[in-house]
Amino acid sequence: MKARLPQGYGGGGAANLQQLARQAQKIQEDMDRVTAELEEKEYSATAGGDAVKATVTGKMEVKAIEIKPEVVDPEDVEMLSDLVIASVNEALRAAAADKAQSMEKISGGINMPGMF
Q1: Burial of 18 by CB count in 10 Å (0-12 exposed, 13-18 middle, 19+ buried)?
Q2: Is 64 helix (H, G, I), strand (E, B) or coil?
Q3: How far apart are CA 28 and CA 20, in angstroms?
Q4: CATH class as words, domain 15-107
Q5: CA-CA 20 to 30 A from 47: which of 63, 71, 73, 101?
Q6: Distance between CA 80 and CA 56 in Å, rounded?
Q7: What predicted TM-score, i.e. pTM, was given to this entire model?
Q8: How distant, in Å, are the alpha carbons of 19, 45, 105, 116 from that of 108?
Q9: How many beta carbons lie within 10 A of that of residue 79, not counting itself?
Q10: What residue spans define the domains of the chain?
């Protein structure tokens, strides 16, 4: 005895597979386009009440560090270092969050390892 699927299920075989492949290709193209756009964006964050400002790109590269002269204290270099680290990390988090949000819109929340 042969098992039957309800009407509307199966039966498409190769056509369904081709449609799925086209959808996956479109998603990949959209992700590539959005990734290129995101890599061109810049993200900035500050620390210490705007004493230190870091700017990074969507490629996760540090582009600029701005330090207000009044926070440069030769006696407390460690504090300045902490402010720089904090502002860079926050800018990188903003870039990563923007990328994750953009990719989720494209993929519909489906986790696709290796695609982004």
Answers
A1: exposed
A2: strand
A3: 12
A4: alpha beta
A5: 101
A6: 18
A7: 0.71
A8: 17, 29, 5, 13
A9: 13
A10: 15-107
